[in-house]
Amino acid sequence: MAVVQFTETISDPELFPATGESVGGACDGWLLYTAAGTLTAGGVLLVTGQRKAGLAVAAAGVVLAMLDQQETVKACWDALPGYLTEIQSILARVQGTIDEVAEQGAKLRSALGK
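Below the sequence we write its predicted structure tokens.
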């Protein structure tokens, strides 16, 4: 038995991607396909009237989809405070408008003598 020392390193990007991405093959996207299948099965169960089972399976599908799309979930989570602030300002403007309309209605009723 002989021992051979290798002095060259393998730097083929097909074999060892530098970014940590998985190497292409039959297993790529299995989580995405599982999430899609689970969501579809949950939808079918909901349509056929099996509400509890459909909700449970659909919730599992959502969890799998969130695991697959972690960057998207993080981006949405980071943007959420901005959306909530915007919604709060819209609701404050709507409330102000409703108060003004109620005040105008009260003035109109008093002017008409009712």
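The radius of gyration is 29 Å.
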